[in-house]
Amino acid sequence: MTRQQRAAPGPPSGVVIVGGGAAGLSLAHRLAAADVPGVTLVDAPAGPLTPPERTWCYWDRGSGDLDEAVSACWSRLRVHGADGRAVTLDPAPLSYRMLRSTDFERLVHARLSRTPTVRVLRATARTVRDTPGGAEVRCTTADGRTLSLRARHVYDSRPRPVLPPARTHLTQHFRGWFVRTRTDRFDPAVADLMDFRVPQPPHGLAFGYVLPLAPDRALVEYTEFSRTPLTRARYEAALAHYSEDVLRLGPLTVDSAEQGAIPMTDGRFTRRAGDAVFRIGTAGGATRPATGYTFAAVQRQTRAIAAALRAGRATAPPPHRRRALAMDAVLLRALDTGRIDGPDFFTGLFRRVPAERLLRFLDGTTTPWEDWGVGIRTPVVPMLRTAVELPFLPRRRPRGSPPSGENHR
């Protein structure tokens, strides 16, 4: 067989997972823990498709099975309003946790190497399609061989080439510096979740974000919710202003930087791509539209998939409840139209709603009664006006290519 010939497909295996990012690795990890047999993870070899190191953050309670990969954890959070006043929150029993993608990948791959039910195939998936009795994944290895994998079920985590039509299309885009200061400038126990003491753009909102790693080290980030990402030069200028003029960090060294963009849209992310093909992760709608948080929803979704497969059922449950998505659609539209002031809106929530409840609300795990309690603490008139308007708005496709997910949240 020549290197370009396609290997003859054998009998279907159990499950093929396409993509080795947060969603693909999380599902492989959950299936290994559930002893689901016949699992293949197709992970692209090192090369141009390998993303740079990323940061994922989420909140959780107690200890978890990913604690070995957690690089930092904060028991208190702080939000700075545009007026300069800060509110410090204790979200106990929740804590805010930070994972570096390389640490997460190292942990999961080490566990998979000890699991006979899961194999990792270093190859680039080219096509995924339904076949009689299952699905087929065609992929190319690093040495140029073309392989065909047959499976009863395929879970595809690759980014969508085009975002679905939506009434609102915003992007959460950011650039962050991992900085080292000459003197101790940070409190390692407190993370600054939103700092609105930065100039606001004409459309949308902007905030700073500080995750202290030591008294003299932190991830300092500039973030915008708006329609269009910035140039690198504009991110750098915004970060310099935030570090020097707002945080007053003094002389510092930038050890490394990271940049990303996350879709914020009320488009309908279908999770079924065929009779035997399911989308997971950002491609399957795991990104929370109004916040950009993804990692926690991925963990919920992949646990549910593993439990279903262990019980003999194939499914990809919705990462977020319909009620949460409906509320997010209203908020996104209200932000996009300028009917609400973004900094005042978020600062008001953190000042008026108990921290633990608000974080569960942002994660989509609150009860209807708790949602009502949060809702009445928002600008009611513009939110109601937006809610009435939404059903009559057309859904349109976004212009340009979709932003990539799996950054930060």
Poorly predicted ranges: 1-11
Helix/strand-derived class?
Answer: alpha/beta
The termini sit apart by: 45 Å
The CATH class of the domain at 13-54 and 99-163 and 266-310 is identified as Alpha Beta
Helix percentage: 25-40%
Morphology call: globular
Q: In angstroms, what is the radius of gyration?
A: 22 Å
Task: Please indicate the percent range of residues in DSSP E strands (runs of 2 or more).
Answer: 25-35%
User: In the CATH hierarchy, what is the architecture of the domain at 13-54 and 99-163 and 266-310 at level 2?
Assistant: 3-Layer(bba) Sandwich
Order of SSEs: EHEEEEEEHEEEEEEEHEEHHHHHH
What is the name of the CATH topology of the domain at 13-54 and 99-163 and 266-310? FAD/NAD(P)-binding domain
What is the CATH homology-level superfamily of the domain at 13-54 and 99-163 and 266-310? FAD/NAD(P)-binding domain
Major β-sheet annotation: 7 strands, mixed
> Whole-number average pLDDT?
91
Number of strands: 16
InterPro entries: FAD/NAD-bd_sf
Protein name: Lycopene cyclase family protein
